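Exercise 3.2. Students should predict the tertiary structure of the chain below and write it as structure tokens, then compare their answer with the key that follows.

Predict this chain's 3D structure.
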Amino acid sequence: MKVPAVGERLSPQDVERLRAGMALQMDHYAGGRLPFSCLQARGLVQHMVPLEGPDAGLVMEVMDASGGYASACLGAGHPRMQQALRDGLESTGYVTDELGSLARVQLLEELFGPGGLWADRFPGDQYHASGRNSGSEGLELALRLVLEAGFDRRRLSPKAGREGRRTILAFEGAWHGWTGGLLSLLNRRHYRIGLPQPSTEAPYGLDVSFLPYAEPEILERFFAENGSKLSAVFVEPVQGDGGIIVPPPGYLRRLAALCREHEVLLVADEVLTFAKTGQFFGMTDEQGPIPTDITVIGKSLGMGVVSTSMVIARRELSVRSSGAVSTSDLRPLTSAVLRSGLKYLVEERLIERAGPLGEELRGRLKKDVVDVFPELFREVRGLGYMNGIELTDKSAGALGKLRNRVLEAGVFVEFMAGAGKRSHGLRYTFPAMRIAPPLIAGADDLRELVARIQKGVRKFAEGGA
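Answer key:
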């Protein structure tokens, strides 16, 4: 298929081919997939065509404000990534974790060795790392590490003194993944009902308690009453699917202190926040790194080129022999891509500039979108390039139409589900429009993004078809 220029059209036969090909992929959205197809992309720009309506087949220029579920931090077709893939394919090999690999050693040394990029947070004599295919797989390994920490492998029984610690604390509205083991960490009945649930019976059963996120007093009371029963806490530093919820200052550091005080493992789910908040890690405040026992990173880690995640855990946390072997554990090619991409982020200071540019972006979103359409949006929240605009009841009820209008105006955005109905009498949290562009987006790009979002929202508000 030859790709026409922007403003030109595909033939009806090519449009039908795209429709038919889309139907061959399993639909995970119950018929709600967007009726558009991407033909090609470079940098922040994607060339898309509508598949339905009077403009079907008309090639559009669309700016990417999503980064492919916030994973393509360098956009599409970045020259650095092209070179990394070429070099990796030519020289790194394909050995598994059963053997050492120069590419893997170089990556881990530069991250965790003396003077390494993250050695101040995860010194190599105290932490070790493992790779997985996806964020969900990384969180599954984190859960496994938590469970193994309470198990005596020699006696094949719960560790003495830890028998009563069978509860994990998670948060309302959190998202940790689709897989069977992780469903227990989601307080969303829609995803859990009708599927097998983990046993809650002693000695190996697992209980999960849920609290509303970013509420300090509720957290303090819970630990005072239940700290001795907890084995671990799973937390997103900025809650993603819950609607880009940023905790108040001091909340995460206090959570870490409570975990230490009560001998509870702290698991940071940084799959979404990694490299997005103006820091490499969201578990950071004005005092510096906030200590964790296990940290899982992903999405942007793969630079939009490879699907990968990394689990960084204290060295005393491990899995029984061969119990967590993975084909994808920091394969040499993956290691080469990660090493090259992370070096580029540092050299170009893309992480640091996301802090002030993100603040400017939120200011523009408030002024040009939220304040202009108060009946449609409640507020804008975020850190760095991880931002969300919470919808109102009115706009949430027509979310699909709103998204289409913004896309037709030339911006691809994603929507987060929101925390919904929360406990403790807290207000209902509606879905949020997520604006999380690739880190290569500069100030001019962000201004254009906001202008196009405003244009699409205006068309939606005016009831345009």
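Discussion points: The first strand starts at residue 36 and ends at 42. The CA atoms of residues 405 and 428 lie 25 Å apart.
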